[in-house]
Amino acid sequence: MGHLSTHVLDTMNGCPAAGMRVTLQRIGDAGAQTVKSIVLNADGRCPDGPLLDAAAMAAGRWRLLFEVAPYFRARGVALPEPAFIDTVPLDFGIADAAGHYHVPLLVSPWSYSTYRGS
């Protein structure tokens, strides 16, 4: 049974990005529609479990918006205005609605990387 999850690690401080706001959007012909907005828990994950469970999984184009600059400012990091990295938009596709899609983000105020996790 498929599901979508994410995990954010703060590479500047060496910890999960607890408190970061993340928005999930479905991208269709009419544009992007917000499906869910969450604040990451102490482990840097969605507090309610998967972002999409098996019933909500659907093939198509999706976007995760990670609010990076507000997270680091809340941690006391002095960032320029505008911040070098403000919001990280991550567009990805779900080809198999029965599959497990894990989208981790490793982030600092100056860089980020992602991959399809397990």
CATH class: Mainly Beta
Instruction: Output the CATH topology.
Output: Immunoglobulin-like
CATH homologous superfamily heading:
Transthyretin/hydroxyisourate hydrolase domain
Q: Please state how the strands of the largest beta sheet are arranged side by side.
A: 2-1-7-8
Q: Segments where pLDDT lies below 50 for 5+ residues?
A: none
- Main sheet makeup: 4 strands, mixed
Q: What portion of the residues fall into strands of 2 or more residues? A: over 45%
Overall form: globular
Helical stretch tally: 1
Number of strands: 8
Order of helix and strand elements from N to C terminus: EEEEEHEEE
Q: Domains counted in the coordinates: how many?
A: 1
Spatial extent as radius of gyration = 14 Å
Ends apart, CA distance between termini: 14 Å
Overall pLDDT confidence: 97
Structural class: mainly beta
Return the CATH architecture: Sandwich
Structure description:
With 118 residues, the protein is mainly beta. The chain has a single domain (3-108), classed as Transthyretin/hydroxyisourate hydrolase domain (Immunoglobulin-like, Sandwich), CATH 2.60.40. It is 6% helix and 46% strand. The chain has one helix spanning 68-74; strands at 3-10, 15-16, 21-28, 31-39, 60-67, 87-94, 100-107, 112-114. The chain is globular. The protein starts with a strand and ends with a strand.
List keywords for this structure.
single chain; 118 residues; mainly beta; Immunoglobulin-like; four-stranded mixed sheet; four-stranded antiparallel sheet; 46% strand; globular
